[in-house]
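Researcher: For the record, we're logging two predictions in this thread. I'll number them. Prediction 1 follows.
Model: Prediction 1, sequence and structure:
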Amino acid sequence: MILEIVTPEMTLFKGEVESVSVPGIDGQFQMLDNHAPVVSLLANGSVKIFGNVQLEESVASLFKQEDGTTNFAITGGVLEMKDNKAIVLAD
């Protein structure tokens, strides 16, 4: 699946991932390939990206990579999952 993480300033990441876990307003949930379409508000927490994530040097300091996951802290936002592409509009 394709994941795109966008902030008001810029697109921080766009690439192929195995799965992504996000902090929804009703709790953390995960999406895999071919997930059903969904739109969700996001809460304060961490976007967890699973897979071989290659970050650009200019944004690598904003992410934390450990134990096979890449984490990005958010204070809120919106997620749209459709046609095997997840877009996180993050605050």
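Researcher: Logged. Prediction 2.
Model: Prediction 2, sequence and structure:
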Amino acid sequence: MPKAIWNDEVIAESDDTVVVEGNTYFPLTSVREDVLVPSETHTVCLWKGKASYYSLQAGGHTAPDAAWYYPDPKPDAAAVRDRVAFKKEIKVEA
């Protein structure tokens, strides 16, 4: 089962992931809420739409803008709706 690991802690785990452009998207419900901190950062992908970010915070560590999601993805990117992906500093194992 795919897992996202940060600072030796599993922060997301699900057998219902989607891989898009090499990034594993986990259902938001599979991510530990206690580590997610909403961020003011936003970026735009031409085909997926506007991305919003979370920073991760736990055990005295912070990873700014380390997770992103598309609250309202464009139709071609519907598969990432309600899902979160992580920057490369967050280890994702299958």
